[in-house]
Amino acid sequence: MATENNTIENFLQSACRFISTEEKAQDMKDELKDHIYSYIEEYTEDGMSSNAATTMALKQMGDPYVLSKIYKDKIYKYNKLFRIFSLIIITSIFILTDFAYISLNSYNNFQIFLCSSFTLLISLQSIFEIVDFIRIIKKDRELSKEEPLFYIQSYKESIWDEKAMKYVQICLFGFCLILFLSLIDKFNTIESPEVFSSSLVTINSISFTLLVVMSVSIFNPKRKSAIVYNEGILMFNSFVPFSSMNGYMWSKENINGKACYSLAFSTKKTSIFKKSSLISNDRASIKVSYSQITLLNELFKSNNIDEINS
């Protein structure tokens, strides 16, 4: 009986390998199970053994790899391009308003140096992030020529801080756009340098806030587009090849009374061990469905990557 259950589970795992969320995959598995067990019941009533009935039922269901392509989730690749475009626009506004504000005020050389250094530092951070995303887009296009092994299924429901971050970003983007458009309209009638300067400070502050929010949100470990290839794991903002991994570690937490699992990697470039715990780059952290833990453990084992116990 255990062998038959494993056979069915392997079939379901293969059929649902391109579904990106735990809940959606479970719904599909439940639906397929109903069909499989109805076939098994029908064949056993005809006198077949349980093992033979299971084999015949799975044949009736068809090739799981063909089914997986039918159920395949559509991954939206325009999210990365939108993020690059947003970063370029917001960074440009931040730089222009900052230097326009400096030029309107009588600052000494030291104050100008401090303001310019801060602006340059923030701008460089945004540029590095843009370059990273461009690199990931190129890698994504390169890997898209290959057949992925499976999608890593994350939990669907966001926890409170992820929801808050999402709503904060939407509100700030909307508020910034409305304010920016209204200020452009008012600039034609502004006569007082003080009012103009105050408007520049407002835009600059909002732009800076948006850049901070976007930078913080990039470390959100819940990404639905984590895809496993033969070469490594492609995530929203990074690609981790198996050849660069020193080890991996599972961590467990309870969210809304439900056990959720996180997968962290130790890579040759970012590996730091301290007090028997794994400290890895947050960009290489993924929320993973419990049903895929065994699958991922086998994948790492086949690539000679060891699990590190906390």
TrEMBL record:
Alphabetic keyword roster? Membrane, Transmembrane, Transmembrane helix
Q: Does the keyword Transmembrane apply?
A: yes
Per the UniProt record, which residue ranges are transmembrane?
Answer: 81-104, 110-131, 164-184, 196-219
Record InterPro entries: Perm_prefix_1
Q: Which domain of life is it from?
A: Bacteria
What is the name of the protein in this document?
A: DUF5673 domain-containing protein
